[in-house]
Design brief:
The protein is an alpha+beta fold. 24% of the residues lie in helices and 35% in strands. It has a five-stranded antiparallel β-sheet. A four-stranded antiparallel β-sheet has the order 2-3-4-5, with no helix packed on it. The longest helix has 21 residues.
Length: 153
């Protein structure tokens, strides 16, 4: 009987961990950003090509922009292109950079081949201390306006 009680006790924390791990990246980050003490969070609201030609210094390196071979605006960290998966690639537009100290969130509107300018997708990138993308999450254009965890706005 004691074994059953122990198993039931262990099952609860494991299910809580699984639920937290399955939460979408923007929702997890939104909660983490909300928990940062006022005045400690560094953010930059950007319009690619307008107010960020020199880039922004962050805890993981300087975030700047360049054009790829197709003329699409792409993000760089310390002059190196970020590793963004093919389905999430497109031309970056307006967005925000959140510096969480040791990791940086880039939340941007992205126009992919299947999107329209009037209906861009929302892409959230989590960049780790070495300047590499550790996680990414895309909300397709037609669903982006209704997405409640968006960090782009």
């Amino acid at each position: 009987m004691k074994i059953l009680i122990i198993a039931a006790t262990l099952a609860l924390p494991l299910s809580a961990v699984a639920a937290k791990a399955s939460a979408e990246l923007p929702c997890r980050l939104k909660a983490e950003i909300a928990a940062v003490k006022p005045g400690k969070l560094k953010t930059h609201k950007t319009e690619v090509g307008r107010n960020d030609q020199k880039g922004f210094k962050t805890s993981v390196g300087a975030v700047s922009w360049d054009l790829d071979d197709l003329g699409q605006t792409i993000p760089l960290i310390n002059g190196k292109r970020l590793g963004i998966s093919k389905p999430n690639q497109g031309s970056f537009g307006n967005g925000k950079i959140y510096d969480l100290g040791g990791k940086v969130v880039l939340a941007y509107q992205v126009i992919r081949m299947e999107d329209s300018e009037s209906d861009p997708s929302n892409l959230t990138l989590l960049v780790g201390p070495k300047g590499a993308v550790s996680e990414q999450f895309l909300v397709a254009g037609e669903k982006a306006a209704e997405y409640t965890c968006s960090l782009v706005k």
